[in-house]
Amino acid sequence: MRRILGFALWMVLVFSLTACSGQGVDYSLSSAESDYQASESDETVAEDASGVESAEETGATPVAHADTHEDEGDYTWDASMVIPVILNEDSISADNAGVNVEGTTATITQAGTYSLSGSLTDGQIVVDTKDEEVVRLLFNEVDISNAASSAVVVSNAEKVVIILEDGTRNQVSDASIYVYPDAETDEPNAAIFSASDLTITGNGSLTVNGNSNDGIASKDGLIIAGGNITVNAVDDGIRGKDYVVVEGESINIVSKGDGLKSDNAEDAAKGFIDIKSGSLNITSGGDAITAQTDVIIADGAFELQTTADQNDQIEEAVSTKGIKGAANVQISNGVFNINTASDDAVHSNGSIVIDGGVFEISAGDDGMHADATLTVNGGEINIKKSYEGLESAVITINAGDINVVASDDGINVAGGNDGSGMMQAQGMRPGGGMGRGMRSDDTAMFSGEPPADAGAAQGMTPPQDGQMPGGGMGQETFSANTNYYLYINDGTVVVNAGGDGLDANGAIEMTGGVVIVNGPTQQGNGALDYDAGFKITGGVLVTAGSAGMAMAPDSSSSQNSVLINFDTSMAAGTPVHIQNDTGEGILTFAPAKDFQSITFSSPDLTTGSTYVVFTGGSSSGTGTNGLLQGGSYSAGAQYSSFTIAEVVTQVGTRQGRY
């Protein structure tokens, strides 16, 4: 399948070497960004257990979607042809053949534009027309309640557009218990219910109280193109079966079920959510934003919080993710504040592509999890709390600023099902395959076979002879797979992990960027943990952690690395300084946690040169993520010296795995 893939080309790492003795190298990245270039690709794709295809290197572009029902003519009308419908608490006035009134129920039977105003204490507006033209409902200070059913029902129409008149405040509320004509009938089931395409727009406000089930529901497509909309719902807040398109001003949802939802499971071109702009504030007992196929976000401001209790989650198999696209999630821009107390913040059973945006994430499980591929082409991702920060079978970082705090692995390259953090919270052993938790909605989880030949196109090396597989107490128990890959091509990645910092149940390739890892303090994990090789050809890598499982990039690399093991553990904040034989500093690093090993790789480590390692002391340089840059270093205690004779140099007592 041919795909259009976007590649982010960022300026390479800038090294500013100072001439003064003891001064450090500037490892900051240039902020300049080159233009994205779209190109066609014949790359192989692989199919996961759900049948969703995923591109192997930079994530999948969402499949072609069904056309939406939006038309420019939906939003214009002849004011002289507007038909008034007056709501008088317990009666309705409408002098037009297109409106049939029976008590407190008004049924609109002809296409046209109808202006609704006033209140109904127990009534209903019904649209039932076979015309092929649009029905417009102008809400002008409307307040409709119903004691036995929905407040607004579209039973049949080509499409219906609800316009919230400028500056008006409107409200609809349904019954808490519906009365149906027979046991086989279960619709309508929302305060505003439509069996046809529905659009809501305008510059007024609308409050919807879904007291029985959903707030707003369409069995076809749903477009929210304007208005200040507030929904309170016993189940789902806003649901469009075929699709939900949002280009509105403000949406506020409080729901016990999902917040914003599209759930067509029969058609791969439908079941998507497309958010072009707007402000969304969602508090939900289920997923905040969830689509059966794709979630596409171009821009907007998002406050997303899911609140289901962890114990209930396991027993009742409730998914409480922040953003979930079963096939794909693609985010171009926006500001995101996501808090998922017991689940993933951003999730896909297929692929995730992040092209930009600012993310503040606190997750009970993974910060971002994709079963197939996770690609970051830009943006600022701050994962303040997670079980694992980033997780996928293939992770590619092309640009961006990523900061991860994880109680287990910071970045985990593995296959398997979702839910490790949830299982860990219940005192169960985390691990892959059968050991990980699965929620009822995650039936399309990645089967364990990653994208075919994902690494071959990248020129990755096969596992080295005698290489030990990863693992250890408290680690993931996925088996190694040569198609699991972590690619770091540019950007800044900072990890603070309780488990492994960078964990690849396959291989790692780094060609550029800056990676800083404050890894584990326990000996059963390592700042680096890979099973099938780590090839570094560019960039700066600095890791600190325990020494029991310490690793460095392997001998297939073209850039030199050094692994330094210390005799005893050192306190967090203790500077480690490396300078060359002329006294010029190439690294001053103060880890954020206690440590007994340091791994360092940089273009400044040159073959044949000798370097001296100091610990302690102080630096007048500016600290960023533990790197002390510029200024001067006052020597502490000399620990050791080493000469670069091979691609990987080991200093100190041999421990861990090399």
Radius of gyration: 29 Å
**Spatial ordering of strands, largest sheet:** 7-8-10-12-15-18-21-23-25-28-31-34-37-40-43-46
Mean pLDDT: 82
How many DSSP-defined strands? 59
Biggest sheet features: 16 strands, mixed
Structural class, by secondary structure, is mainly beta
Helical content band: under 10%
Low-confidence runs: 1-24, 27-60, 310-315, 420-479
Question: Which descriptor suits the 3D outline?
Answer: elongated
N-to-C span: 40 Å
Discrete helix count? 2
Give an account of the 3D structure.
With 658 residues, the chain is mainly β. The chain has a domain at 81-241. 2% of the residues lie in helices and 45% in strands. The two termini are 40 Å apart.
What distinguishing features does this structure have?
single chain; 658 residues; mainly beta; 16-stranded mixed sheet; eight-stranded parallel beta barrel; 2 helices; 59 strands; 2% helix; disordered N terminus
